[in-house]
C-alpha cells in the first residue's frame, strides 16, 4: 500500500510579505487554504521576543493552530559558531544554543529542530564542534520529543562526507532523536536566473544546480525525517523551471517516505507572489503523487 506524503509550508516562503502585506493570521490562512497541515518557522525570525516569547503570543500561536487545523513541524535554529571574532565557539556553548531552541520548539509544539551549524568550507562541512554539541543535547531532545535534523543543502550532495558523518553519528549513538533534513535544492538541474547586478564571474557554481540524482535518496531514506521543498519558480502551466519534481516524488514514494514536504519558496519577492507560487507547487506535487499512486 502506498504511503501518503504530508504537505506543509515554511513561513520563510512568505519573507517580505510577512509584516508588510500579511500578518501571522494571514499566513496561517494561506497555508490552511492549500489543504496543507504543517507549518514550519525560523525561531529568530518568526517568534516575537525570541528567545523569550510572551505568554500572550504563545496563547495566540496555539489558538491559530487550532483555528486553522495546522500542526507545528520544523523549527529552524542556529548554532552561530562565528559569534566571536577573537575565538571559536566551544562545544558547550554550541550545546547551550541548541538546548535553548529545543526548549522553545518543544514549548510551541514542534517535532523537529533544524540547527543551522556554522561551516568551515564551501561545501558546507560543519564546524567540528557539531558532534559534541548535538550529543550533549540528545537527552533533552528525547525528553522533549524532538528530533534534531541538520540540513543537507546545496552545494553538499547526498554522497558526501558530511552526510556520512551524520549517519555514522546515528549509528554510533543509536539515537532516534537525530536524523537528516533534505533540502530539494540539491536536485536542481537547471540554472537559476542571474540576480540583478550578478555577473558570470560572481556566480557560485551551485546556483546552476548540483544535479544530485533523485535515486541517491534511496540509500539514505531511512535516516531522513523531514524534507524542505525548495523551489524558485513555477509557471502558470505548473512547470517548475529548476527542480525536477517528476523525478523526485516517485523516488520518495518508492522509498516509503511518509513525512512532510514543506514548501520553501526562494524566488522573486514581489508582494503576494509567494502565496501563488506555493499554491502552484502544492498543485504540481499533489498531481504527481496522484499519478504515481494510480499506477502502483
Question: Keyphrases for this structure?
Answer:
9 strands
Q: What does this entry look like structurally?
A:
This protein is of the alpha/beta class and 296 residues long. It has eight helices and nine strands. A nine-stranded parallel beta sheet has the order 5-4-3-2-1-9-8-7-6. Helix 5 links the parallel strand 4 and strand 5. It is globular. The model has no long low-confidence stretch (mean pLDDT 97).
Structure, briefly:
The chain has 296 residues and is an alpha/beta fold. Helices cover 36% and strands 16% of the residues.
Topology:
Blueprint: E1 6-10, H1 24-33, E2 38-42, H2 43-46, H3 55-68, E3 71-79, H4 91-107, E4 112-117, H5 130-144, E5 147-148, E6 151-152, H6 161-173, E7 180-183, E8 224-231, H7 245-255, E9 260-265, H8 273-295
Parallel strand pairs: 1-2, 1-9, 2-3, 3-4, 4-5, 6-7, 7-8, 8-9
Helix pairs in contact: 4-5, 7-8
Amino acid at each position: 500500500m502506498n504511503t501518503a506524503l504530508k504537505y506543509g509550508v515554511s513561513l520563510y516562503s512568505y519573507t517580505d510579505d510577512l509584516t508588510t502585506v500579511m500578518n501571522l493570521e494571514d499566513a496561517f490562512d494561506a497555508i490552511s487554504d492549500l489543504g496543507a497541515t504543517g507549518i514550519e518557522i525560523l525561531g529568530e525570525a518568526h517568534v516575537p521576543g525570541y528567545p523569550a516569547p510572551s505568554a500572550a503570543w504563545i496563547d495566540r500561536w496555539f489558538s491559530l493552530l487550532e483555528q486553522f487545523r495546522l500542526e507545528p513541524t520544523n523549527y529552524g535554529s542556529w548554532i552561530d559558531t562565528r559569534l566571536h571574532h577573537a575565538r571559536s565557539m566551544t562545544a558547550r556553548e554550541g550545546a547551550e544554543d541548541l538546548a535553548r531552541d529545543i526548549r522553545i520548539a518543544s514549548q510551541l509544539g514542534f517535532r523537529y529542530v533544524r540547527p543551522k551549524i556554522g561551516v568551515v568550507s564551501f561545501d558546507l562541512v560543519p564546524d567540528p564542534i557539531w558532534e559534541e554539541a548535538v550529543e550533549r543535547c540528545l537527552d533533552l531532545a528525547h525528553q522533549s520529543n524532538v528530533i534534531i535534523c541538520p540540513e543537507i543543502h546545496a552545494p553538499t550532495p547526498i554522497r558526501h562526507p558530511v552526510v556520512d558523518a551524520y549517519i555514522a553519528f546515528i549509528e554510533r549513538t543509536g539515537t532516534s532523536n537525530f536524523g537528516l533534513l533534505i533540502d530539494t535544492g540539491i536536485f536542481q538541474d537547471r540554472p537559476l536566473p542571474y540576480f540583478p547586478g550578478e555577473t558570470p564571474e560572481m556566480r557560485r557554481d551551485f546556483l546552476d544546480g548540483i544535479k544530485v540524482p533523485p535515486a541517491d535518496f534511496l540509500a539514505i531514506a531511512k535516516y531522513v525525517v523531514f524534507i524542505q521543498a525548495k523551489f524558485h519558480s513555477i509557471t502558470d502551466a505548473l512547470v517548475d523551471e529548476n527542480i525536477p519534481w517528476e523525478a523526485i516524488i516517485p523516488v520518495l514514494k518508492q522509498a516509503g517516505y511518509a513525512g512532510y514536504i514543506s514548501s520553501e519558496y526562494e524566488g522573486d519577492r514581489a508582494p503576494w507572489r509567494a502565496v501563488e507560487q506555493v499554491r502552484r507547487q502544492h498543485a504540481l506535487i499533489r498531481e504527481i503523487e496522484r499519478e504515481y499512486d494510480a499506477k502502483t
